[in-house]
Amino acid sequence: MKTNFLYFREHGSISFTATAAQTDFTVKGATTLVPGSFGGGGFSVAIADTAALRANYVVTITSAAANTGNRGSDYASADTVAGEVTTLEVEALSITSNNMVIAALTGGDAQEGYDIKAGDIVTVTANAAKGNVGAYRADRLLSVHANSDTETEVTFQAADGSAADDTIAFTHGDDDGVTFRAIANYFAEAADGNFVNSGSCIIAFDAESNDIPKQLKGLGITNMLLGSA
Amino acid sequence: MERYLYFVKTSDAPNATQEVALYPTSSITAIEGGSSTSTVIRLVPRDGTGTTEDKITLSHAANNQKVVMNSLVSLVNAQKNKDPFVVAFDAENNIINIEGVTAVSIVSAD
Predict the structure, then answer these.
(1) Co-location of A139 and A120 in the same domain
(2) Which of A21, A91, B2, B38 is least surrounded, with the fewest CB atoms within 10 Å of its CB?
(3) What is the dihedral of CA A54, A58, A61, A62, to 10 degrees?
């Protein structure tokens, strides 16, 4: 008897193309989900603050052209070549209001700063960690239930044996249960040992890579949140 | 047939606590990200409480969890293998049967 494992990954990446020598990039918005949605760039959970940004995210800059003296002393070289990808030192990063601020070298941070030029690509990616990526045993599936008109939750027996469940919450439109039914139907099928791809890791919802099964595509799911006990 | 996954942490002879372990695949409760460079196999604890966990942490390249999880699940379900003893990661003999894994650590609650 094969054991199906259902794989989930929250979305957590966004890229910007700098239009000038800018330092500020909007990584949050009025709601927790913006900017963007999964597959289109954005985060399942808003970046809370500077500490969270530094601890849980990686920020890279891909240089559009060769530059001289645009990086601080903590980097291997002060210069960059076209296409070079620099992983920013975390001390160069902060959150102010809804913006991520990258400390500039010129007039800013001589050690960790980076002078961004027009055309540079800035990418913010959430690190994989407990609570945003996991594969759960289908035979530990407890329920698929509605939390509200616009949220359907899938629960598994907690991996740590605690009373709390491990949860997967899908946000979607209010369509009188149509999406709920589709989600429930998918998990009933995916949990079965005869499901296609049984015995391998079944990609139930990989929002990060926009790798979504056809049964769940087109349902208008706008977010997936993983909760691990 | 139940299968059992064998893990060895050390490149020398594994002879100390939490250097070597064997777990039935049915004890796996979930596989989750641990950090950007690790994936954690969460297991039913051998202390019988059900409120703690045993954990095997797999180290790998950054954000490679999907590949590691897929390879591990394939190993769990490797039905062509008729031997219930399945070497998952054996640092002592340099046998790595989970794609992308470079090291393991074992935490057992007892």
Answers:
(1) no
(2) B2
(3) 170
DSSP code, position A88: P
Other C-beta atoms within 10 Å of B11: how many?
Answer: 12
Enter the pTM of the model: 0.86
Mutate to test the interface with A, among B47, B68, B69 (most CBs of A within 10 A): B69
Q: Tell me which of A75, A92, A126 is where a domain ends.
A: A126
Residue A98 forms contact with B (CB below 8 Å): no
Q: Is residue A3 part of a domain?
A: no
Structural domain of residue A102, as residue ranges? 11-126
In a domain, A4, yes or no: no
Total structural domains within chain A: 2
Using the beta-carbon criterion (under 8 Å), do B53 and A160 form an inter-chain contact? yes
Domain co-membership, A109 together with A136: no
Work out the burial of residue A144: count CB atoms within 10 Å of its CB; fewer than 13 is exposed, 13-18 middle, 19 or more buried: buried
Residue A186: how many CB atoms within 10 A of its CB?
A: 21
A158-190: pLDDT as tens digits: 888 777 889 999 999 999 999 999 999 999 998
- Among residues A82, A104, A126, which one ends one of the domains? A126
Structure confidence at residue A44 (pLDDT): 84
